[in-house]
Amino acid sequence: LATIRADGRPANRTLSFRGFLHESHRLMFVADARSHEAVELIGSPWADACWYFPVTHEQFRIGGPTTLIGERIREPNLGAVHKDCWRELSDGARLTYALSAPGEPRNSRVPFPTDGPDLTTPLPHFCVIVLEPREVDHLEINGKPQNRWRFSCDSHGRWSAVEVNP
Ligand SMILES: Cc1cc2nc3c(=O)[nH]c(=O)nc-3n(C[C@H](O)[C@H](O)[C@H](O)COP(=O)(O)O)c2cc1C
């Protein structure tokens, strides 16, 4: 997922896809609210995901605004999503939210906790990133020639597609 840093420079990182929000086209990821990715998205919500499917040789680049669902979200539907994503994490991934802030210098004198956090109560820094696609660039690299389409969504939520040169 690519984001924009406060100084305008790009940043990217690999994130695991956590499913579609309420079976819509909105993509979900999880992150630590103290991480660079979360802080960058708060400052500049538009993000861009690049997703390659090696079996079908397709690349999708998906851009759009993001929303962070954290502990202070009160809407019941989103609160349930927050809890579901927490429960579905691996034990190892859940444990990372019990550590000191990500990206900070590691203090070898402070032992890492080993007991997994409670499954039912997300730790305070756990958040779900929801990406609402507004632009999609789809490339099929196994065509001869390759095939490429650009999809965009207008302000009324209507999608249009243009086939473009690869
Ligand atoms: C295969 C893979 C999956 C990852 N999945 C996640 C994830 O789901 N959530 C997350 O916050 N970081 C995930 N990471 C770690 C991020 O790539 C990144 O290192 C971390 O989020 C810190 O980045 P930042 O400093 O830009 O916030 C994953 C890394 C790899 C290699």
Describe the structure.
There is one protein chain. The longest helix has 13 residues, at 76-88. A hairpin with a 4-residue loop joins strand 4 (46-53) and strand 5. The chain is of the alpha+beta class. The protein has three helices and nine strands; from the N terminus they run βββαββααββββ. The strands form two sheets. Strands 3, 4, 5, 6, 7, 8 and 9 form a seven-stranded antiparallel sheet that branches. The protein binds flavin mononucleotide. The site of flavin mononucleotide has 14 residues, from strand 3 and helix 1.
Secondary structure: elements and pairs:
Layout: E1 2-4, E2 10-12, E3 27-32, H1 36-43, E4 46-53, E5 58-69, H2 76-88, H3 91-96, E6 126-131, E7 135-140, E8 147-153, E9 159-164
The chain binds flavin mononucleotide.
